[in-house]
Write a structure and sequence with these properties.
The chain has 573 residues and is mostly helical. It has 21 helices and six strands. The chain has helices spanning 40-47, 51-85, 89-117, 119-137, 143-157, 162-168, 173-204, 209-216, 218-225, 234-239, 243-257, 269-281, 288-291, 295-317, 336-372, 416-426, 429-443, 445-462, 470-498, 501-532, 534-554; strands at 7-17, 23-33, 37-38, 265-266, 397-398, 468-469. The strands form three sheets. Strands 1-2 form a two-stranded antiparallel sheet. A hairpin with a 5-residue loop joins strand 1 (7-17) and strand 2. Helix 7 runs antiparallel to helix 17 (429-443) and helix 18 runs antiparallel to helix 21 (534-554). It starts with 6 loop residues before the first strand and ends in a 19-residue tail after the last helix.
């Protein structure tokens, strides 16, 4: 008896409350015959990279640009608020820390929300929340109100990482690394634009920081206007068993890109794998002579096989096909390999944020210390020098000398020249992106992160040299910021690739929360510890980068060239 090559099963597992009040399940199985099937991964590859992805790059890039602007503004806002409100050093640091505290809380929640309710809906709520809270913070009348509003902005901005998840799910595997790094150009642009805004608003037009925060909120409102052009993630729809809607999205992408979808029926990767297992059990070379005699037995066995396949599929689904079970934190620790990966990634993300934001804040703090000295002299505490002499240095040279501790109160605003120095250091983002692009597909994600962490260690140790000219010191800071930008980008490529669709947003959100923990700590190193012992702060940054680099090498999975996984059972755990 002839059979088509595939006998397909569409399985839907629905949860409901039984008569006894306990959770029960209803299984619906549709068995159909088809010889042509395709998965969402194959459809994305067939659509290639075209106008749809370019348009989506701008959308996701603007979100990433807002993230950069809201972070970069902290390095400018804190010293301005210190002058306006007469703050002490710890109060100045709190303005930065509360933002990262909000981001730490929000990152995991945004990830869970988008895993449960969809990428598009989550990003819409995220954009509305950030645009409103950012605008409200521009009208903060006093220090406590400013701290509250900036904390809310931090909670909202935490969702910006999900734009990476959303974008990655539409990009072909061969282009994914380059594309994810490309949208990081928007992050670099964001830091540059924010400093340029500060130069114009604060230094040139002599307006106050309220205006600066207002202008910073504008790009998110622009992104809101583009939401009508953005569809839901096809991968998310497939994971939710919404095959018809997923196909509509894929057909739209193919039409925009001028491509055609593969012929046949769209199925999940789980269903495709079960079909292949079933096909392997069949024996197409069976002799014609014995075929009729065993036809009935074969039909019975086939029925049993179908039942067993359904049971296996149900066990494999594990509830991941329903929205109620996706986004569980426990899924990040479901196997030994997944647990190891998650914990190492948390350390890597924490180290990246601790080092990167530390360099950003350290730059303005050094400039602030220079300006706080009456004659533009920078002095350094001798806790690391074994010297009892005391002298002064010009504003262009950092000397290794004894001095009284730098005052923790007082006010000296950044000058136009300081903003130009900041503007120059923000361009460090671009070499970091270029380095990552050049090596990530050659040596892999893990080695790229490790290489850039270890280069950061070198730059931090070079800052130990003193006396050192300010230009040379800024060059080392430039180098450290450049490679630490690269570690972030490599981590943003690796993390969505290593987690399946069912927990991808949650996994990225959890990593983002770990990063915010590092960012919460770093202001007290870059703005408080730095004033007491410069080398102590630099040494701490170098040590964290060493640990993070080792963790990158210890990651158990290399994702270079690997397809995005749809569910936990697709992951090579």
């Amino acid at each position: 008896m002839s059979r088509p090559p595939f006998s397909t099963m569409a399985v839907r597992l629905t949860k409901y409350e039984g008569s006894n009040g306990e959770e029960d399940h209803e299984l619906q199985v549709d068995i159909a015959m088809s010889d042509k099937l395709f998965t969402v991964e194959e459809a994305v590859e067939a659509c290639g990279f075209g106008w749809f992805q370019i348009r989506l790059s701008v959308f996701a890039g603007l979100i990433w640009m807002v993230d950069a602007m809201e972070i970069m503004v902290l390095a400018i806002l804190a010293p301005e608020a210190r002058c306006d409100y007469g703050l002490e050093t710890w109060q100045e640091s709190l303005i930065t820390t509360v933002v990262f505290f909000g981001m730490m809380i929000g990152a995991g929640l945004w990830g869970k929300f988008m895993d449960n309710y969809g990428r598009r809906r989550g990003l819409l709520v995220f954009c509305l929340f950030v645009s409103l809270t950012s605008l409200l913070s521009a009208f903060a009348p006093n220090y406590p109100t400013l701290v509250v509003f900036r904390g809310l902005v931090g909670f909202g901005v935490a969702g910006s990482a999900q734009a990476v998840t959303f974008y990655a799910e539409f990009v072909p595997a061969k282009s994914r690394a380059y594309c994810l790094i490309f949208i990081e150009v928007f992050f670099a642009m964001g830091t540059f634009v924010e400093v340029l805004l500060a130069l114009l608003v604060l230094a040139h037009f002599e307006m106050n920081w309220h205006w600066l925060l207002g202008f910073t909120a504008v790009p998110m409102f622009i992104d809101l206007l583009a939401f009508g052009l953005v569809p839901e993630s096809a991968r998310y729809l497939v994971a939710s068993n919404k095959m018809e809607k997923a196909r509509e999205v894929l057909e739209r992408i193919a039409r925009i890109n001028g491509k055609k979808l593969p012929e046949g029926r769209l199925v999940s990767k789980h269903e495709r794998e079960m079909i292949e297992i079933k096909t392997q059990k069949q024996n197409p070379s069976q002799d014609e002579e014995g075929e009729d005699a065993t036809e009935n037995d074969d039909d019975d066995k086939e029925a049993d096989s179908d039942t067993n396949d359904v049971e296996v599929l149900i066990n494999q689904l594990g509830g991941h096909g329903t929205t109620t079970d996706r986004g569980r934190l426990a899924d990040l620790f479901s196997t030994k390999t997944r647990t190891t990966t998650t914990l190492l990634l948390w350390i890597i993300w924490l180290g990246s944020a601790f080092g990167y934001y530390g360099v950003v804040l350290l730059t303005t703090e050094i400039l602030n210390i220079i300006n706080e000295q009456g004659n533009k002299t920078l002095t350094v505490n001798s806790t690391y020098m074994n010297s009892s002499s005391s002298s002064s240095a010009t504003a262009d040279v950092l000397q290794c000398i004894d001095a009284a501790p730098v005052p923790t109160t007082g006010c000296k605003r950044l000058l136009a020249d300081d903003y130009l120095q900041l503007l120059w250091t923000t361009t460090a983002e671009f070499p970091g992106l270029l380095l990552t692009v050049l090596v990530i597909e050659r040596i892999g994600r893990k080695k790229t992160m490790a290489l850039e962490f270890f280069l950061a260690v070198v730059f931090f140790l070079l800052m130990y040299i003193c006396p050192i000219h300010k230009v040379v010191l800024m060059t080392f800071i430039f180098g450290a910021r450049s490679v630490l930008t690269g570690t972030f980008q490599a981590a943003f490529v690796y993390t969505p690739e290593v987690y399946p669709t069912s927990v991808r947003a949650l996994g990225l959100g959890a990593c983002s929360s770990a990063a915010r923990l590092g960012a919460m700590i770093t202001p007290f190193v870059a703005e408080v510890l730095l004033r007491k012992t410069l080398r102590g702060g630099e040494g701490l940054y170098a040590a964290v980068c060493v640990v993070s680099g080792v963790c990158a090498l210890l990651l158990p999975i290399e994702t270079k060239g690997r397809e995005l996984m749809e569910s936990a059972t697709n992951v090579a755990d």
